[in-house]
Amino acid sequence: MRSTTAAAAAVDPALLSSAVSFSAGRELKLTAKNFPAVKFTGKRLTVSCAAASSPSQFGRRALMYMATTSFLMPFPNSASATDENSLLQEEIKKVLTKAKAPGLLRLVFHDAGTFDEGDKTGGMNGSIVYELDRPENTGLQKPVKILEKVKGQVDSVRPVSWADLIAVAGAEAVSICGGPKIPVQLGRIDATVPDPVGKLPEESLDANAMKQSFRKKGFSAQELVALSGAHTLGNKGFGNPSVFDNSYYKILLEKPWSPSDSMSSMIGLPSDRALSEDGECIRWITKYAEDQNLFFEDFKKVYTKLVNTGAKWRSV
Ligand code: HEM
Question: What residue stretches are annotated with the Plant heme peroxidase family profile domain (predicted)?
Answer without folding.
Answer: 101-316
